[in-house]
Each structure stands twice: as structure tokens, then as C-alpha cells.
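Input set for joint prediction.
Command: fold jointly, output C-alpha cells.
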Amino acid sequence: MSDVRLGALLERARDGDRDSLQELVRELNPVLWRVARGQGLTAEDAADVVQTSWLELLRRLHEIRTPRAVTAWLITATRREAWHRRHRGRRDVPDGTLALDGVADPGPPPDQRLLTDERDRVLWTHFSRLSQRCRDLLGIVAQVSRPDYSAIAEAFGMPHGSIGPTRGRCLAKLREMLLADPTWGA
Amino acid sequence: MDPLDAEILDRIARFDPPPADLDDRVLFAVELGSPAAEVAHRAEETLVGSGARAAGERTRTITFDADSRSVMITVVDRPDNLVRIDGWLAPGAALRVELRRPEPAPARTVTADDTGRFVFDEVPHGLAQLLVHGDNGNARVVTPSLVL
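C-alpha cells >
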């Protein structure tokens, strides 16, 4: 969805239109989820951070002068909150059963058990060998059909012009690894 | 983008998808009547109790921090499948505290004592959100929604 259209949804949400707000949430949550998980948060913390970003957005709705920048605003808020969350940490106590709960996942994917599809498993193996930047970028790009490069660039502190080429390089590298792997198949 | 690129991105998009209830949790949390003065950020969560103790004695303590004050709650499972929430505002003040649950459940409001303590008992499991009303009745602190 284009930034112009997202901006229009934000303006209608600002005028109190609940449907527009819902559409905005459904559209942007997958990206924000990816951003929070990319910062190494557990699933529970990531869900919490995404919510907090939306609450902050609502609180500052009337201060936002450029509605089409809503994606960048939310990505930035999510990254910042995720960073704080990781550094505040979590303490789980005594009986030990939940001690691992607070350990951040190393990367996005989750759970090998969920990857029942052979090609998914192969892809995951190679995907996890990419750099953090490549994983973050591809993870976000994969969630949006028409990625808003300016929003991603702004939020990640990368030059706008470098997003497309970086995405291209990351994807090319992944393709190369997959095509060289006989278990990926044709 | 050729079919292989499309397939790769399509598969990547399915790795680690957001939890099924994420949209609902966000929509519930933001459907406040009016925006909050402050958003309290979840600072810490502690879990105590497990199989070693009798079932129904699990206790979670969660701290939410906002600029003006912190809200700490302890959620205790009751034997009847409901929970009790013991809360504490710091700095302590006799403010009104509201527990929101998804409609049609009515919101419940209690007033903290002078030291900031408050209790909600016999609360069903599920989504909930806490609001702390300010002295003047409208400035408020809200927490993200939590699953009790």
C-alpha cells in the first residue's frame, strides 16, 4: 500500500474513523512485528512493543504534520521502544522453569518445528546465514507488496537510494545459495 | 521480480508471522475514548510459581513505567479460574484506576488508597488494560493491553 494511501487512512483515523484505523493497523502490524523481532525481542515482548508504538501514535496523532510519513514514524517508534525493552531486560525467578523465557531469540524465525515444508527449511538455513541487515530488510520487504523505500530508509538510517540495491544484493545472494543447494531443487 | 524471487519473499513472509491476536490486541488497546496523556511502558515481568506449587497459585508481577508514575500489578490465579489483581501506584496517590476489558464487558473502576494500593478481584482471564485517571479527572496513564 502506498504511503499516500496510508497517509489518507491516518487522516481519516485522526478524524475519528475507526475503520480507517483498523485498516492501518492491519496493514502495518506485520512490518512493525518484523522490526521488533529483528531487534531480538521475544514474541511476547515484540507484541507488547508493537502495541506501545500504536498507543504513542494515537497520543501524538495531532502532532503528526506529514501523514504519509506514518510508516516511518511507527517503525522508528518501534525500533526505539524495542531497544529500550532489550536493555531493561527481564528477570524471571526462582524455580527456574521460566528462566529461559526472557532470553531474546537470536533471529527472526521462530521455531524450526513450524517449518514443516522442506523448501522452507532449506530457505531458512540459508536465510539465517545472511547478514543481520539483509535479514531485516528482506523480512520487511517480504511483508509489504509495494514497500515504501523512503519509510524504510528513514527508519533504518540508510540512504534512500541504497535500499533498492541492498535489497537486490541480499536477494541475489540468497538465490545463489539456494540454487547451489541440491536440496532446494529446481 | 521473477517467480523465484517472488517465491523466496513469499516464504520469508511466512517465517515467524505475527501472533494471530496481535491486530485484536492493538485495536483493543487503542480504542480508548480519548487518547492518553501518557503511555506506560512495560518494564519488567516476573513469574513465580509452577508445578511445584498447587495449581492455581501462579503469580505474575508486571511493572509499567510512565514519566509521571509507575504501575505495578501482581496477577494471582484464583482456584475458580478467575484472577485477582493487586496493584500499586508509585508515587502513591488516591487516584481512580480503571480496568478495561473488551466489549461488552463493562469497565471497572476502583480508587487507590493514599499509598497507591488498589485491588480488582474476580476478574476473568483475557485481554485487559489499565488506565490511571489524573487528579483533574482526565489526564491519564494507560498501559498496553495484557492477557490475564
